[in-house]
Amino acid sequence: MEGLAVRLAERSRLGDLDLDRAVFGEIFSDHMFSMAWRDGAWRDPEIVPYGPIPIEPGAMTLHYAQMAFEGLKAFVGVDGRVRLFRPDRNARRLRLSCRRMCIPEIDEDDFVAAVTRLVDIDRLWISDRPGHGLYIRPIVFSAEAHLEVRPSRSYRFIVMTCPVGAYFTSGDAGLSLKVEDRFARTAPHGGVGETKTSANYATTFAAGRQAREDGFDQVLWLDGSQHRYVEEAGLMNVFFKLGERVVTPELNGAILPGVTRESVIALLADRGIAVEEREVAIDEVVAACDDGALEEAFVTGTAAVVLPVGRLSFKGRDLIPLLAGAAPLARSLHDELTGIQYGRIEDRHGWNRPVDV
Ligand SMILES: *Cc1c(COP(=O)(O)O)cnc(C)c1O
After folding, report:
1. Helix 259-270 and helix 328-341: axis angle, to 10°?
2. Residue 69 pLDDT level (bands cut at 50, 70, 90)
3. How far is CA 300 from CA 5, 45, 147, 263, in A?
């Protein structure tokens, strides 16, 4: 990246920490990438020690949430090489989120170059233990101090990274989901559900907290207009195996287009299974549970990769114990995807982006 300034930390914090005990999102690695939008251009790209940034109380993002973020991972492969998984997809999605939120778009090549350089500098933060990696969190937000309700004139783009272990440790039980029939994640028809913008996340906390109090891990979201069609599970995309068929809700504008979702659809196509992307009524899922057609349900996302659903509850009724321990399709997709990410399996789609020294 042109004009990138690098100022390294005087001392790494890595020696003070036990990475194997890192809880997701709690520890940040030594460096962050930063650049600023001023006077109509992205300027001053730099990699500096991770740390607090000055922000004015009047900064527009604190008031109106004009911001977007991303989430992707880097891995150390079995051959010792560091790889990013499909960063071009995150670059594109961030650009589309920015466009929707009236934030100046970040060039996709610049995004990938920034992430690559940052990961290269903090490569020692990536544990080579199975299931471990470096979670990368880019954010872009409005920085102008002004209370008028309009797009900001200045922005910051920051990329930080966190060491991560295996995200869920629920073991063979799988994820337990409560079908959410009261709250909505997002609005249909013209909302921002397909955008990774911060406003979509705080609004889910009330439903998530209630689900946990009721003994579930996450909610299964239904559409925001009729509460009839399945959309997502927590912050993950969802798939159902009905006999020989695999179905997933179609990208209707309210659903976040997951990179993992797209990758799983491609892996299934390689196996000769054409995933049906269409409306999935919760009534269809309930009926399939009752007549035994529902063989598996699983969720996909960068953090969890592919995780079987072990329990589904609708209007206080436990539909079925899905016996996640078996979940052969979810497990084989998980193994194939992580096999590619860790360089154990040939990367036939060219998804990995090596971070070369
Ligand atoms: C990020 C996210 C996903 C998963 O996307 P991946 O690119 O697979 O990580 C799914 N749903 C929501 C709401 C998300 O924010």
Report:
1. 110
2. very high
3. 36, 33, 39, 10
Q: What span, in angstroms and rounded, lies between the C-alpha atoms of 156 and 144?
A: 10
Map tokens 């272990």 to a residue.
Answer: 165
Q: Say what the pLDDT of residue 324 is.
A: 62
The C-alpha atoms of residue 157 and residue 1 are separated, in whole angstroms, by 15
What residue's CA is closest to ligand 1, atom 13?
235
Residues 6 or more apart whose CB falls under 8 angstroms from that of 313 comprise 176, 177, 178, 179, 216, 319
DSSP codes, 66-86: -EEE--EEEEE-TTS-EEEE-
Give ∠ CA 54-55-57 in degrees, rounded to 5.
140
Q: Which residues line ligand 1 (CB under 6 A)?
A: 71, 196, 232, 235-237, 256, 258-261, 300-302
Task: Kindly state the tokens that stand for 102.
Answer: 């009236």
The percent of residues in the chain predicted with pLDDT above 90, rounded, is 86
Q: Has residue 245 got a pLDDT over 80?
A: yes
> Whose C-alpha lies nearest to ligand 1, atom 12?
235
DSSP at 189: T
User: Looking at residue 215, what is its pLDDT?
Assistant: 94
Residue 299: in which H helix or E strand, if any? strand 294-301
What's the CA-to-centroid distance between 233 and ligand 1, angstroms?
A: 10
- pTM for this prediction: 0.96
Comparing CA positions, the residue from 111, 99, 89 lying closest to residue 42 is 111
| Predicted confidence (pLDDT) at residue 357 exceeds the cutoff of 70 | no
Amino acid identity, position 310: G
How many residues are listed for the chain in this entry?
Answer: 357
What's the rounded Cα separation, in Å, for the pair 215 and 328? Answer: 25
Q: Strands 218-222, 175-180: parallel, antiparallel or unpaired by DSSP?
A: parallel
Q: Read off the amino acid at residue 76.
A: V
Task: Report the alpha-carbon distance of residue 272 to residue 282 in Å, rounded.
Answer: 26
CA–centroid distance, residue 237 to ligand 1 (Å): 7
